[in-house]
Write a structure and sequence with these properties.
The protein has 124 residues and is an all-alpha fold. It has one domain. It is 77% helix and 0% strand. The protein has 6 helices and no strands. The chain is globular, with a radius of gyration of 15 Å.
Length: 124
Amino acid sequence: MQKMLATSTRILLALPMIVFGLNKFFWFAPVPPPAGPQAQAFLTAMFSSYLGSAVGATEVVGGLLLLFPQTAFVGLLLLAPIIFNIAVFHFAYDFVGNGIWLLPTILFLVVSYWQKNKYQDLLK
């Protein structure tokens, strides 16, 4: 049961990362702009430079790595700064806008908990 829960949460985190990462390249799902002018300025700067493509590529690669148990930890390491930035951005600028940022944040914490022994090995 524990292994099935760990696998399902890992896949539930991987799929939105892949979809939203691909959306940064192909724009198949429109994303409403945030309400605040600072948040709009940040996103405009991000997507008018290389940073939008770099974040999208990192989300896709990290999500693909999460799909396989052997590479899930590397995927978590790639996605950690991305998910941290998503959570901080929405907490600071668009907290009341939408709660979509909660899903990857909570799933990341759950998957990281299941991989805690690998974090401990990394810090030794």
